[in-house]
Amino acid sequence: MDKYKEENKKVIIAAHICPGVSERYNWSEQMYNQYDDKLIDLITEYSDITIGMICGHLHLDTYRIMQSKDKKKTVIGFLSPSLDTYLGINPSIRLYDIKGGVIQSYVNYYVDLNKTEVQWKFNYNATQEYNLKDLSPNSMISLAQRMHSNRTLHDIWYEHMRADSHMYQCDDKCWNNNLCALEHPRNSEKDCYKW
To answer: What residue stretches are annotated with the Sphingomyelin phosphodiesterase C-terminal domain (predicted)?
Structure first.
């Protein structure tokens, strides 16, 4: 990373697993506890050259707000939906739009498993759906903050998180845990979960 910083190059970090806890399971840590905070510290140390982190593993369309301990540096981890049908979720795929060192938006496509014809369909454009300028850290922090006071916005996000499979209802505990997962991926911040 030091080399890219010296050369004024931007990077995207790709990983199978992002730090944090799964929204979908009771206290399902995705990494060993001792590595979550260390990885976030390393990633945010290079926030000036890091466009974002792109992950999978959870088979969900979600994100993580990874911040330095002083909250001055932020990198967003985008978790992409999955092609497989794990837990009956619709197969999905994402196309990112990256310009000028910022993830401008992404578009998701999916196959509706309830239909007999297998056909890829447009699902949504992130900036249009959530009324965002781009997918920069400030925009994604703003989205999470808006979901705290706007349950309808959260419910739209929640349906997309599961590729519009319409399989699961989200009660108040679910709402809280979703926002906790977005905003608090550090092991030291996980006391906001209500299992």
So the answer is: 89-192
Distance CA 58, CA 173 (A): 19
Task: Characterize the bridge pairing of strands 102-111 and 11-14.
Answer: unpaired
Tell me the residue type at 112: D
Residue-wise over 101-128: b if at least 16 C-beta within 10 A, else e? ebbbbbbbbbbbeeeeeeeeeebbebbe
pTM of the model: 0.93
Crossing angle for the helix pair 151-161 and 137-149, to the nearest 10 degrees: 120
- Inter-residue contact 22 to 30 (CB < 8 Å): yes
Q: Are 96 and 79 in contact (CB under 8 A)?
A: no
Output phi, psi for 101, to 5 deg.
Answer: 75, 15
CA distance 157 to 144: 10
User: Any idea which residue has 């850290």 for tokens?
Assistant: 137
Q: Rounded to an integer, what is the distance from CA 34 to the centroid of its chain?
A: 21
pLDDT digits (tens, 9 = 90+) for 53-109: 999 887 789 999 999 999 999 999 999 988 888 777 899 999 999 998 899 999 999
Task: Give per-residue pLDDT as tens, 112-136.
Answer: 988 888 899 999 999 999 999 999 9
> Is the four-CA dihedral 122, 163, 98, 126 of positive or negative sign?
positive
Structural contact between residues 41 and 84, judged by C-beta atoms closer than 8 angstroms: no
What is the domain partition of the chain in residue ranges? 2-188
